[in-house]
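Why do we care about 3D structure at all? Because function follows from shape, and shape follows, mostly, from sequence. That is the central idea of this module. The next example makes it concrete: a single protein chain, its amino acid sequence, and then its structure expressed as tokens.
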Amino acid sequence: MQLGDKQQLKKYKQFLQKADKNKVLKALPELHEAAFEKINCLNCALCCKNYSPRFKTPDIKRISRHLKQKESEFIDNYLRLDNEGDYVVKSTPCPFLGADNYCSIYDVRPSDCSRFPYTNEDVFIKRPHITLKNAEFCPIVDFVLDKLTE
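And the structure:
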């Protein structure tokens, strides 16, 4: 499938609306592992190139300490408030993404980044709008949804 294919996304949406949540949750760990064995995020990094995670207070504290910056300096240098009041990066691609698709703050990255693409969490089935948005660009999400809808 071509990522973002409208027909496939419609199929995924219908599936997520009707899916047996417990059955999906039971299948996710195995599908998550299979997806990450097959797909290397370093070949893609579209999440880092086009979107921003939320930087919550613990993330800001941890990352600014790692960068040896004051929290206010880190915020001024890298972040802005979005329309929902969350801190996000000022620009995309993420300023911590290297040309090789490696993250320069990987070990201290925001929790949204470490959890992405939520294919091993209940967020996957409980917040279908997020899953569908992610399926538009993330090959991991597409892989998991494709397997679930076979």
